[in-house]
Structure formats: structure tokens, C-alpha cells
Amino acid sequence: MTAPMKTKADAAIQVKTLRKAFGEQRVLNGIDLEVARGETLSVLGRSGTGKSVLLKLIIGLQQPDSGSIRVHGQEITKLTRQQLNEIRKTMGFLFQNSALYDSLTVEQNVAFPLERAGGLSNAERNKRVRELLATVGMEKDLDKLPGQISGGMQKRVGLARALALSPDIVLFDEPTTGLDPITASEIDALILKMQKETNLTSIVVTHDLPSARTVSDRLALMRDGEILIEGSFKDLQASKDEFVVQFLSRDS
Amino acid sequence: MVSLPAADLSGARKTQPASTGFLVRFFVWFGDLGLFCSHLLRAVFLPPYEFREFAHQLDELGSKSLPLVALAGAATGVVLSLETHDSLVSFGAKSLLPELLVLSVVKESGPIITGLIVSGRVAAGIGAELGAMKVTEQIDAMEASAVDPYKYLVATRVLACVLMLPLLTLAADFCGIFLGWITTTLTDPISLRLFIEHGFKEATFNDFLPPTFKTAVFGLIIGVVACFQGMRAQGGTEGVERAATSAVVISSLFIILADVLLVRLIQVLFP
Predict the structure, then answer these.
(1) What is the tens place of the pLDDT at every residue in A227-240?
(2) ipTM of the assembly?
(3) For chain A, which domains are there?
(4) Which of A80, A88, A101 lies closest to B144 in CB terms?
(5) Chain B residues with CB inside 8 Å of A118's CB?
(6) Phi/psi class of residue B70: alpha, beta or left (left: φ > 0; alpha: ψ in -120 to 50)?
């Protein structure tokens, strides 16, 4: 039995038979995925199984070798840069190492996408930046550079930046990796808060099983570039597959 | 205008296997450079424009190179004066010193010294900066937030290099001539006015403008090569180091080659 899923018409992200290889190394080997609007899917798996590549393909940072990726029903693999940028404005991406612009302050980092998207006066933009930073609890460190704040704080700023353009979809690349358990829980709580407040659709790539259980409606476990199993945590627990059992046993 | 595919145009083609021959990698490099330049052209001409970042780069790449360029220009003037003085005296042609010094600084020494000095300082800086941004996913982050890194990072730097090189060359020329005069006047006192009058007596605009403006081509080479090498960096700290080093080596090499071609071209076009 799989977890209840909304109808296909509601799908925010649809991925079909997606393949990607780097030279001889096959990373994705025919992935099929669907994420409904407002749903959170966690993609689990060992390091190097192509989870991050999957996210980068979905936001068009890399091109697949074959297969289809639809975001809001639109095939993104054949778009020009300008068309893709219009789709990207509805998406946010939290990078594994936050990827903050290290020559810009915390405030400038969050303002960066807003300045370029236009449509806001300086005062409105400043207000929005402060609101976003207040949401993630970083409103006191506006003038600090990324190098002057901790990894957890960088993640918070990265989250604020990912949410700057009020996206419908947010892709999280290992949001809690490298953080202490308390900070990791705080990041989970922030993600949950965003989901409740804005009906976000999200894909969370993670190794962190407790975090995945907390933030997601559905989980998918990857192995060798394929989805081995997907469903609720209970579905995964019910599996007799040796790899699934081994993967979950670390948490139990 | 033909739209290019959205992704995989960053010049960041995946590394060729080590077994791939030098010739193949050589042509792949030029192919990637061609794609990079077509992308750059679109970024330069199509709005929106990043004026603030452009102004920042004018300061970063131009103003901050001024002390080094001025020093190198001054040193060239001193050396030229010292080296040529005795030879000219032995030929009884001492009065030609100002003219020889001015022409050699303005026509060749000033432009090429400026090109190579800026290539060392600026190409290394851009290569390392963009290389570090690339390997820490900052450039990916920019793309993910629907911002074209070619507009924000590449076009601004390339244009700043093109604009600043001729201006820096003027500064190098000025310092070279001025320090050349000081060096000369220490052994054979001559007023600055007389030195300048003698120096520029036979000089025409054709001696002065084309060599100065040819440095815009040097600027283009520095900007394009450094940004290209930075944007295709991969593999952590070592990748950044490789990007910075190769940016300097390749841009210096191209500047020297371009100089030879441009000198001949200027001779043909401005006889």
C-alpha cells in the first residue's frame, strides 16, 4: 500500500524515465517521480546515488541525457534560458552548503533575487528581506558576511533566499546535513512552518531519516540510480527488501 | 535571435577523460570558448543591464590596478632612458633621446606592459573568484534564482576590462614619459617642456591612438579568458588554483600573439 496521493492533474513535478550519466558513470537510470501540489517528498539514499543530480535536473542546472521533467505541467528540458528562468522564479533551491554569495552580506544575499526580479520599490524590497530574515530568525545579522556566521545560520539565510521570490516549489538539497541535532530540528521546524504557511510543494533530498519523517508526506528510497521503493514511512518499514531494512535500521 | 538551449552552456563541459588526446582537448576548448562568447554577446546586448556591478568592477579591476600599472610604466621609462642614453651619446644623437623614449613608450612599451601586468593581476583575480564561486555552487545558486550569471558576473567584468585597459595604458604612458624625463634630466638637465616638445615633435595621432586603443583588445582577451577559465573550474581548491593559473598563462600568451598581429595591422592601416 502506498500513501494517499493527489490526482495527476495536481502534479507540480512529474519526472519520467529520467537518465543522466557523467562519462561512463550512470547516475540516474530511469527515474519516475511525481510530486503533487502542496506535497513534500523526501528522496533518501546513500551518498553518490544521484539525489542531488535529480534536484539539479529538475531546476534545469543540468540537462538530462533522456527522459522528461514537467514542472507545473511544462516540459522544462526543451526550454530556452529565458523560458526556464520564468519557471525558476516559481522555484526555490536550498543548496547543500547553502551556496551563499560570499562577497555579499546576509541582507544582500536575500535581496539579490528580489533586485533582479524587479517589481518592488527599494522600501518594499527592504521590508520583504527583513520579513524573510525574521522568519528564519536571522534579522539581527543583516550586515554580516556568510564567512562570519555558523553553518546553521548559513542554512537559515539560504532558506530565506530560496523563499525570496515566494516560490510554489522548493527543492532542499540535504537541508540538515552537517548540522548538530538541535539546529537540524530547528531547520526541520522552519521547513514545516513554510509548508503550512504557503502550501509549498517540496522535494527534500536527505540522508537524515528523522528529518525526512518529520517534514515529508511521502518518502522515496533510491539505489543505483533508480527508485527502489516509495510510500509512507510505514510502507518503507513494511518492506522486506534487505537494502530498505538496512537503511531504516540505523534509525530504529 | 536564435535561442540557445538553457543549460550546459556554461562552458563547463564535463572534464574529458585523461586518455583524450591533446588535440581533441584543444579543439573542445575552442568549441566551448565559442559557445561561451555567443552567450556573452547576448548577455552584453540584451537587457537588463547590471550597471551597479559594472561600476564596482571598473573600480575593482581598473582603479585598483592603477598603482601597479603606474609603477611598471615608470620603471619602463627609467630603464629606457638609462639604457638608450649612453648608446645615443656614442652616436652623437643625444638630442633624439626624448623622441625615442616617447615613441617607444607610447607605441609599444606602455601598451604591452599594461596588458601583461593587468593580465597578471586581474586575470588571476577573476579566474580565482569565479572559479571559487563555481566550485562552491554560488554560480548554480545564481542560475537557480533566475539570474543569468553571464550578465551579472561575466559581461560586467569583460566590459570593465575592455574599458579600463586603454585608460590604464594612458597612465602607464604618462608615468613612463615623466620618469623618463626625470632620469634624463638628472644626467643632462632639460626642462620638462622642452623634453615633451622634442618627444612629440615627430609624433602623430597615428603613433598614439591606435597603440592605445589596441589595449582594448588586450582587455577583451583578459576578461574573456579569465571569466571562461573561472566558469569552467571544477574540483575544489585545486580546480580554483588551476583556473587562476590558466587564466593568467592563456591570457598572457594571447596578448603577446595579439600584439604581434595588431602591430602589423596598425602599420598597414595607419601608415
Answers:
(1) 999 999 899 889 88
(2) 0.90
(3) 10-90+170-252 (3.40.50.300), 102-166 (no CATH)
(4) A88
(5) 48
(6) alpha
